[in-house]
Structure formats: structure tokens, C-alpha cells
Amino acid sequence: METLLEHVYQIRLPLPFRLDHVNSYLIQDEHGWSVIDPGLDTPTTKNVWLRTLRHFNLQPSDIKRIFITHFHPDHYGFAGTMQRWTHAEVIASPRTFALAERYFSNEQAGRDFHYYRKCGMPEQLAEEVTVLDSQLLEQISPIEGNRVNLQEHETVMLGGKPFKIIVGGGHAAGSTGFWNEKERILIGGDMLLQKITPNITYSYEDDEEDNPLQQYFDTLNALQRRNIQTVLPGHGPVFHPDPGFIETVISHHEERLDHILGIVQDDGKDALSVYNICLRLFRKVFNTDSARFALGETAAHLRFLEKQKLLHLHESGGVYYVVAP
Ligand SMILES: [Zn+2]
């Protein structure tokens, strides 16, 4: 584990995925210790935490607060187990709690399958991907104890410093970052990552206004104005973004939008499904494991273009097809 700031330690927790780790932060406070993002609920996570507590000579009851940056399993999954173990309060945005409840339920598999089919994914592949999705439920432990809502603009003390709560979207609705204005430090979950762009996903089940890529652009623009010096991210090492960093992330998505528009303009008369476009974009990396991310990313970009009226989606036989306007 690495000491980053005084009283703030990065704990690297292994993950059984292609993205092979998630960062948790252990923070010493005047009145006890806090954890940001306890990890995925696996025996490995538990072993790392047991080792970490021993290293710091801590009892589980010394952990008083468990913060969650967003509801994704790699960040949230261990929260319930850690809470039962420490009796700490779990603190997150109201949206994070609500989404965790919705997605980590037995009804989600049916919604996932329906979504993959609407996108035009072949039935057998849609079944395989849905099974993979639902296996994740075994690595998520629900929160049963005390939960506390975190509101935007609220200030929390972490390691003796004030951090203002920033709530953003795109990668996960209700994503929370912790911002220290004086030292320009962001503990950002997956809002900003150094080497990978956070997956932006859309699932055709949210409200009419939902437009995750626009929400991510809004989040990035708000972060851009803060002149961030140090990011403590959810994956990868701590980094110091250069002034053009956020601009590069925005350009990456703009290039993808252009790429999609090109595909639709060239071949749109062939009634391309969301899945067809996804394969054109991600053919080299597409497999059962990556299908969910690739399709969600495609759908989010199509949604953005649809909202800009640069293309239309129409449904036929239960499948969405993309048409140039
Ligand atoms: Zn993550």
C-alpha cells in the first residue's frame, strides 16, 4: 500500500476481470478510520483487508465510515460484508443506493436479456452475456445496516482536510467525487482515469431525458474548471493531469461519435442494429466478457447522436435500428 497524502493510503485490491484491480482508500481521521470503495465481495478482497488492518494495528470497529463513489460491483460489492464486520455507516449519494438496489436484484437478469435483444444481439449470445452478468451478483453483498445519504456540495472531513462532494454522471449516475479545493486534489472514483476512458453506458430503460454521454461531458466540463492537480483514481496510479487531459478525453468520445456517423451515413440504408454498429466499432476486442461494455458504450454514443437529432432509432420486431435522418 502506498501513502499518498498524510493519513491517506491506497489499497490495491485484485479483481478477477480483465481490469485486474480496483483502488480503495483507507483514511485516518481524528475520530476513527474511513474507507472509500471497499471493493468486490471476494475472498481475496477480504484477505487484503485483514492484512491491511493487521498492518495498521486496527480492529474492524476502528473503521467508522465506508464511502462509495458509485454503485459498480468492483467499488460497491464488499460494502455489506465490510459493514457487518465493522458496524460502520455506509455513505453514498441517494442515486448510488437506489441503483445498487435496482441492478443487484434477481429481476435484473430479465431486463438485461431484453436489453441485449432490443439492441439486436443474437439470442444465444444474449443468453450467455446475461448469465455472466448475473454471476456478478455472487460478488456483491447488500447493505443491511446504517446508510447515510451524501449530497452534492456537502463537505466531509477526510484525513483532517475538508473535501467537497461533487456528483457527476456518465460512467455511473450518482457518481461521487471528493474535492479538496486548497490542494486541488480529487478522490474521483472512476470520473477520471489516467490510461483508460471510463466506460459510458446506456441501457434503454431509463427516463426519456437520460443521455449518459452528455452527462459525462457535463461532468468533465465541471471538472475542467477546477484546475485539478492530483487525482486519486478508482483504477491505476495517482496522477497529475496536464492541462489538456480532460480535452483529450472529450476528443476521444467526439472521434467515436464521428466514426458512428460515418458508419450510419455509409451503410444506414442496411437497417443497422445497435449490435451491428457495436461490432463495427469494437470487432477486435468483442467477446462474451466485453460484450456488455461494448454494447453499452455504443448505445450511449447513439443516444447522444439521437438527442442531437443526427440520427434516429426505430423499433421493428423488438429490435432498435439506426437510420440516418
Ligand atoms: Zn471501476
TrEMBL record:
It catalyses: 3',5'-cyclic UMP + H2O = UMP + H(+); 3',5'-cyclic CMP + H2O = CMP + H(+). Signal peptide: none annotated. Gene3D superfamilies: Ribonuclease Z/Hydroxyacylglutathione hydrolase-like, Winged helix-like DNA-binding domain superfamily/Winged helix DNA-binding domain. SUPFAM superfamilies: Metallo-hydrolase/oxidoreductase. It comes from the Bacteria. Residues 21-235 form the Metallo-beta-lactamase domain. Pfam families: Lactamase_B. PANTHER family: ENDORIBONUCLEASE LACTB2, METALLO-BETA-LACTAMASE SUPERFAMILY POTEIN. Counteracts the endogenous Pycsar antiviral defense system. Phosphodiesterase that enables metal-dependent hydrolysis of host cyclic nucleotide Pycsar defense signals such as cCMP and cUMP. This is MBL fold metallo-hydrolase.
